[in-house]
Amino acid sequence: MLSPDGINRLYTFATIEGTPLILDVAMDVDEVLAPWVRRALLVVAADAAIYQAKRAGRNRVAVAGE
After folding, report:
1. pTM for the structure as a whole
2. Helix (H, G, I), strand (E, B) or coil at 55
């Protein structure tokens, strides 16, 4: 579920000496736009970054551009 003000995802993508490396990512966007526009743009950018990372292979990080 997406929160109105950000996205929080938890991924376990690597281990260090058998211990899972856990990355917690939180994002927030604050612009002078209607709240529904901010959320829609954030979801579109996050979706594009997810597919960019998937195309790059497993365990990849992608940053959405402006």
Report:
1. 0.41
2. helix
For 6, half-sphere exposure in the C-beta direction (CA atoms, 13 angstrom radius) is: 9
Give the span between the Cα atoms of 65 and 15, in whole angstroms: 29
CA dihedral 49, 54, 57, 59 (to 10 degrees): 70
> Worst-scoring range by mean pLDDT, 33-37, 45-49, 59-63?
33-37
Question: In the chain, where are the structural domains located?
Answer: 6-56
CA distance 64 to 17: 31
- The span from the CA of 42 to the CA of 52, in Å, is 15
**Residue 36: pLDDT over 60:** yes
Q: 36 - beta bridge partners?
A: none
